[in-house]
């Protein structure tokens, strides 16, 4: 009960703070930095354009100033999220040799199991530099990557049904649920950018997304003490939006765009953390921020006079992407005579596959 009271107080303080000052003012200082908390039910249940527009402006303002928002009232039942976490944990408990039978092997497919140490997320796009970083300080996590299951070329890699009963159906259903929320959030983005509400609908309808299950095993603190070592290094995401479902352990940190210092994105029960990715920033001519973030180890528990152990952590990320053949070029409301387009057009596939190919060994 005490923990629940603290969490409620934390949420209430965020809501009160939001009424005292503007987000643009708050993010300029580390002491007042905050990720806005937005009740998205007011958009989902809106009866008028004005009601939708108020929420849309909050969402867009959050992506402009921070690049991140907390979304409550998102419409995904707690039971649905809990089931996805339960099935994810069951998969990662399988023996290593079983998981290796469904190993990730192609950046265009981007499907399958990725063992600890194989990935090194970073802002670099240079394959040799990333390889050196990976050798020095690989990300201490394992993941499972799942794409759309009906793709005519690239197939998901599923463990045998008996290994984790119900896993495939749970994840396919969760994939669809996340896509539907993504579509609605993108409608709020469109309104907030003075575009038609359905502007993005036919640019994201092929569901070229990536559902990533993440497991951060308990680890001795000394193994995370090397220079540059983290559970997941500082990086931005590649697509339009990322929907992040956190457990209660924490560890996600977001860079304050103004001070460049990392600030904790404390888990808030019932919320989803949503951030803008590289392609949405590029589409918006950098009106939106694709903000750097990382995962660090939370407080460790002492196990001897010289060693301590960090707790295990789970999260689920849904990386939302435009259709692979969508041409990402400056949106019409994000450029004018004083703000020319900053980027050459690029397709979703060209950008994302290139980044993935350099990230993995």
Broad shape:
globular
How many strands? 17
Question: Which architecture does the CATH hierarchy give at level 2?
Answer: Sandwich
Structural class: alpha+beta
- For the residues shown, what is the average pLDDT? 86
- CATH topology tier name: Jelly Rolls
Strand content: 15-25%
Percent helix: 25-40%
Radius of gyration: 20 Å
Are there runs of 5+ residues with pLDDT below 50, and where?
1-6, 14-18, 120-127, 129-137
The count of helical stretches stands at 11
Q: What sequence of helices (H) and strands (E) makes up the elements?
A: HHEHHEHHEHEHHEEEEEEEHEEEEEEH
Strand order of the largest sheet: 1-2-11-8-15-5-4-3
Q: What is the CATH class designation?
A: Mainly Beta
What is the CATH superfamily?
B-lactam Antibiotic, Isopenicillin N Synthase, Chain
